[in-house]
Each structure stands twice: as structure tokens, then as C-alpha cells.
Amino acid sequence: MLSYILRKLALIVPTFIGISICAFAFVRLLPGDPILAMAGEHGVTPERYEILREQFGFNVPIWQQYFNYLGQVLTGDFGTSIATKRPVLTEFLTLFPATVELSFFALVFAIVLGIPAGIFAAVKRGSWFDQITMGVALTGYSMPIFWWGLLLIIFFSNGLGWTPVSGRIALNFFFRPITGFMTIDSLLYGNWAAFVSSLRYLILPSIVLGTIPLAVIARQTRSAMLEVLGEDYVRTARAKGLSALRVVNVHALRNALIPVVTTIGLQVGLLVAGAILTETIFSWPGIGKWMIDSIFRRDYAVVQSGLLLIALIVMVVNLIVDVLYAVINPRIRVQ
Amino acid sequence: MTLMKSLLAASALIALTAGAAQAKTLVYCSEASPSHFDPGPQTGGNDFDSSSQTMYNRLVQFTPGSTAVEPALAESWDISEDGKEYTFHLRPGVKFHTQPYFTPTRDLNADDVIFSFERQYKEDNPYFAYLPNLSWDYYQGMDMPRYVTSIEKVDDRTVKFILSEPNAPMLANLAMDFASIVSKEYADQLQAAGTPELFSTQPVGTGPFQFVDYQLDSAIRYAAFPDYWGGKQPIDDLIFAITTDATVRAQRLLAGECDIMPYPAPADIATLQANENLTVIEQEGLNIGYMSYNVTEAPFDNVDVRKALSMAVDKQAIIDAVYEGQGQVAKNLIPPTMWSYDDAIPADTYDPEAAKALLEEAGVSGLTVDLWAPPVSRPYMPNGQRVAEMIQADWAAIGVTANIVTYEWTEYRERGKEPDRSGPFLIGWTGDNGDPDNFFATLFSCSAIGVSNYSSWCNDDFEAAIQSAKTVSDEAERTALYTTAQEIFKAEEPALNIAHSKVFMPMNKRVQNFVLSPLGTHSFVGVDVAE
Lengths: 335, 531
Description:
The complex is a heterodimer.
Chain A: H1 2-29, H2 34-39, H3 46-56, H4 62-74, H5 88-123, H6 128-141, H7 145-159, H8 182-188, H9 192-229, H10 232-239, H11 244-281, H12 287-296, H13 300-328, H14 331-334
Chain B: H1 2-19, E1 25-30, H2 45-50, H3 52-55, E2 60-62, E3 69-71, E4 74-79, E5 85-90, H4 110-121, H5 137-141, H6 144-147, E6 148-155, E7 158-163, H7 170-174, H8 184-193, E8 209-215, E9 219-224, E10 237-242, H9 246-254, H10 269-274, E11 278-284, E12 287-292, H11 303-311, H12 315-321, E13 327-329, H13 352-361, E14 368-372, H14 384-396, E15 401-405, H15 409-416, E16 425-430, H16 437-444, H17 460-471, H18 475-492, E17 495-508, E18 511-512, E19 528-529
Parallel strand pairs in B: 1-10, 14-15
Antiparallel strand pairs in B: 2-3, 4-5, 5-7, 6-7, 8-9, 9-10, 11-17, 12-16, 12-17, 13-17, 18-19
Helix pairs in contact in B: 11-13, 16-17, 17-18
């Protein structure tokens, strides 16, 4: 088991270097120039442009800029935002809990609805329920997030007035963050009304962000269940006279869940990608919105380090999923 | 232990807010996160709204709703005969904000004023580079280093600016956000503590509101400053709820989550106007959308060709289709709300037949040109691509083929500045300080070639007029000079002035006394909310 984990860990190093090169090159491949982006219509004189280039360290060859950057990152210095002049890592850590909180609720939404829907569709294969569920899942999978978010806002927030439009908590609640998770902090302060408010603000963004993972999980659960339901041991269980409920929940489901767990793990990367749009629509102060704003400002420092930090987290989550998978399924370890 | 402490502190804070349930709160859905709260090095309109407009003052200020300059921290000022010495007499008893992190021991004095400017150009000032990669873009951009030789303290309440040469827009420049006055005492305290960077995140000013809290990318909170020299504000709390998407901002306003918002999406304006709980105020923007000809390249070096091409453009159709009626046809570079606007200049006529004839006269036929279209929506030109397409169609009618070219926004402007750029270039400008110099000299002076003069146009008579207008301080005299400049501009047609767009500000009906500034900043001074 240990050697399995070590092997997986060793893979992270080259991946990390590869991603650092990509992140670094990616922002520089974008057309546009951070100095000119800041100057706007005012323009900037050639002399001043040179001064600023030197100040930002853009005057040395690009490979040297990369090695300077890599050197900094390896000592834990992720640079300073060009726009806000704050350390990128500080901003990341401030905003990251908001993204985690939203992703967590989105994933809960996706799992709680997705797995039962998938099981039911598999058990009642070919029924109207199956057909509708899989049709809806396909629609959900193809849903343009931005449009979907606005549609929900217009219908539920302004039409029915059930949910708030955007933000993280009602503006009359105001406390300094402890953990950065609004739901946890409000409970830590013992403010029940704030806790309820934070949950209300989570509803729409969680639905929007959870829609695609929900579709994926439902479809994956259904196909895994169908496969397992055709196995001999399920037939044996049925022949023993066990109740249908027991056959499905105990004998089939546990085996069917193995590929589903992997799928859920893989959703983490997708959640981060989805968070970029979801956070923008719902003014959710997380890392997705932060990245988008920084791309528009050509804030190289934030974009490259932000990408790197996000990639690092996705890699760690994938590693954990791999290890969990090996725990669930011993066959993986010996391969 | 630390957790316990912050818990206690926070519950005290909640109790505080709960106790002030009667407080009047105004929620403003702002359009972007502020970079930080030090107005000196900032450049974005949203930055200024959240720092200089709320928490700071200048020596002089723009009269609300106008571009006229009136006293602020300076009660009065004298300008020497030769226009090279500006002496400001400071208002007595101006208090800086008292904060948990700073308690002022003295009122505003000349040292604060001198520090506020010296940090922007004296490299040995400890605050010149107190943040990484700091640059003082507006101080540079408004050409201040060229004019300001020194700033001297006459006594505690008198400060004198010595200029290298007369510069009439100086007073308007000093009313701009970058010229906000900060506390030297606070700066010294942070410097001594070794934490000067806090100057940008824990602000202290003299303004109508004081800083309470900023939750990154989420909300900024202010409280009315009880000891404000202009009197305490009618509202108690001001909240900026950061909402970047324009459509979502409109939804929040409709749902009552905020009271007022800037920059509605053009498509949402009609819905907002139709809502019975909302008012939408509008104002002529201090801006111009125009098309620059590169006068150094053939055939645009021929004024008749420029005039013929301009004559063939149906500007009214562009206003109707692209600005959706939310703009007006421009005949001069400066908007009609600005002083020195020359209304005697005849409006451009749309006359394809005459244009055709003029082109023939100039010996140009079968002309194919590149037409540059900006890739982004700007206040002065909501859809540059569409404007280009309409001009392309207008020109096709007179036998001119236009190929529309475009690039990413910064790349676009960079290529547009090149002296050998081929083809007319669509661009625009929003005024900084309400002074005509800020349009004429910034956009069409000889020294702006390669920076923001996209026509590469350097006309001796025009240059003489706008440069002399800089050196005289009498407004009537300046108006005469700018009138001349506008006549030369019209005769030479270095660019086709297309449109001045309107600015809209939707708000809940309970918001009272909000005044829209022509300069595009948003100030909540004097604003009240009905119970």
C-alpha cells in the first residue's frame, strides 16, 4: 500500500513542473499586455513603458522569467498581484473557503439526488421514470451554466422571491471570518439567523454548479447498477428469496459504487471549472471569480499562480481518490 | 485562545450592528472589486468610488453634477500674476478619521498636503514605492511632473505650489481623485511600525465616510464620519455589494438587494425604467466616440478624402442602431456640456452624393481601406464592431471598400498608435477632469503622437491654440482659443466625431438626492434614503 502511495506521489512532481510551465506560458500567450491593460485609453509613453517593464521584471528573457518564477514558487512565494499589490497566496487562501463551501454543497446536491435517481432508473430500466431521468440528465449535462444561472435567478429570486439573487449572506450579517466557511462561522458565532441566511444564499449557486455533476453521477450510477444487476451473485441472492430492497441496497449497490466513487472524485476538477462561471453570476467571492477578473486585467501574477495552486489542489484530491479507491478495491494495489 | 478572542470580538461587533437597527443604510451594487484603498496610485473608476469619493477629499473639488471647481479642503486660493504660483489656504479644524488602528492627534495641516503629493514623485519619499510594483499613473498621465517644481509650506494652514510654467488645467487636476489628501501622521505611524503597506488596506482620510471593513471581492462597508467638516451624512451606513455582471446587478436592484447601481446593460434599461419602484436618472456623458484618420498615410493625407469619407457616414443611423438612442450625434470633439463647446460649428451633413463627387475631385477611385473596430464595449462606443459594419455599408455606397480589422483590446490600441497604421481607427475617450485641455491636448497634441493621438496629426495652428490655452487662466480667453481649435479641427478633419453617449443610473425610489457626476465617479455625499 505504501509503495502504491509513493508511486502516485512521485508522479505529482513532473505533473507539477509541467503545469507550472503551462500556467506560465498560458498567460503570456494571451494577446494583450498587462502594462497597456492598466494604462487604458490614456496610453503610456515609450519611456515610461520601459520603466514599468523593468519594474515588473518583464524585460529579461522569457525563460529567465520562468526560472525566477519557479525559484520563487519553490520557496513558497507565489508572487504579488499586479492589480491589488497583495500576496497571491493570501488572496487565494482568503477566497478558497468560499469555493470549497460552494463546491461541497453542489456535490452534496449532486450525490443526494444523483445516486438514488441512477439506482431507480437502473432497477426500473426502460420505464418512463428511467427515460425521463436520463433525458433530464442529458439536458443537465449540456446546460450552459451562465444561462441556467440567470434563468433560475429570474424565476426563483425575482419571480417568486424565494431565494436571494446573489452574494454569500444577507448584508445585515457581518462578522470577521474564522474558518472562512460562512455556514460554519455563523454557527461558531452562535448566530442561527445568519446560518439560515447563508444556507439560503447557497441554494441557487449549488444547484447551478451541481447540475452537471448530478447528470454525470446519475448516468454513471445507472450504468454501473445495470452491470452489477446482471451478475450471477445478484441472481443467487434473488433465488435465495431475499427482498428486492435487500438485493439492490446490500448486494448490488456496494459493488456498483466503486466506479461511482471514482467519478465523484473526478468531478472535483469539473467543479473548479464550473465555479468560474457560477461564481461570476452569483457574485460569489471565490477563486473562480478571482481568476476571471485577473484574466481580464492581465494580472499575470495571479493567473499563473492561481492556476498552479488550483492544479495542485486538484492533484491532491485525485491522489486521495486514488488511495481511497485502492482501499475499496484491493485488486488495484497489486497492479 | 485566539479563536476565543476573535469570537468575543465578533459577537461584540454583531451586537453593535444589531443595536443600530434604526440606522439608515444605503446599499450600492458596485461593478468591480477595488484594487486597494489608496487613491494616489489607483486608476479604475470603481477604485475611486470606493476610496477617494467616499473616504477622502481634495484641496478643491468638482461641484456635484458639474465640472466646475469649488473649494474643499482649501477654503480659498490665489494664483500669481504669472500663473506659476498657486497658494492654497486650508480649511481650519478638518479632522481625520479615528479608527481602531489610528487616533489622530492633530487636524489637517500643510504637511499632509505636501506629503500627499511628494510621495507621488519624490523617489526618496518612503511611500514612493511602499507597495510592490507601485506606479503613480495619474500623476504621470496628467503631466504633473512637467509642471510641479516644488510644493512649499508657508505656514500650517498655507501651502504653495510652484510651477515651471503656467498651466491652466492645474486647478481641475487638483480636484481629481489621484490628488486626494492623505494623513502624514498616519503614514509616519505605519512607517515607524514597519508596516507601511497597511496604508492601502486600512485607510484613513478626511472624507464623509470612514472605513469599516472589506471582505475581499464581496462587500465594502463604511460608516458616516461623525466629525466630517461638511457635516455628518444623512445615511449612517454605506455598503458596496460587489456585483460584476451587469444583468445580475439589475436583478439585485429589482429584488431590493441593493438601492442603486451603475452601468446597466443597455438591454436592461427599458425594463428598469418600466419598474414602478425604480427611477433611472441619465446624463450626457463626458465622452466622445470618434474615428481617427492617419493623416500621414495616403490617401488620408488629403483633407478632401477625409472629408468625403466623413460625409458618407450616416451618424444618426449609428446612434439609433448602436447606441439605441442613448446618445447624441457629435460635431465637436468635446461634449456640449463642457465649457468652450463651439455650437456655431455646423453639423456634419450626411451626403453620399457630395462625398462621391469630392472623392472623384480628389482623384481617388476604387479605394480599399482597413477599418479598425474595437473589440470591447466602451461607454463611448457600446459596440465597435457594429459601428464599423454600418460605416462599411455607408462607404460601399460611395464605392469605397472597407475591410474590418480588429485585435485584442490592448493590442488594438498598441497597433493603432503605430505611425504607419493603415486605415481609419475607431476609438473614444472619457474625460478625467472636465477641462477641454483633457480632450484637445490629450488626444490631438503633437506630443501625444505615439501615445493617444491616433491620427498622428500635428497641426501648427491647432497646437498653438491649445498650448496657449494652457497658459492663460482667464476662462473667456481660453474659450476663444478653444473655439479656434474647434474650427481648425473641423476644417482639417483629422477624425470624424461620431457620438457622445449617455450615462444611466437606476435606483430605488427611496434613494434621495443622488447627483450623477459628469466625470463618471459615484459619490454618496448628501444622499438620503426614505424610511
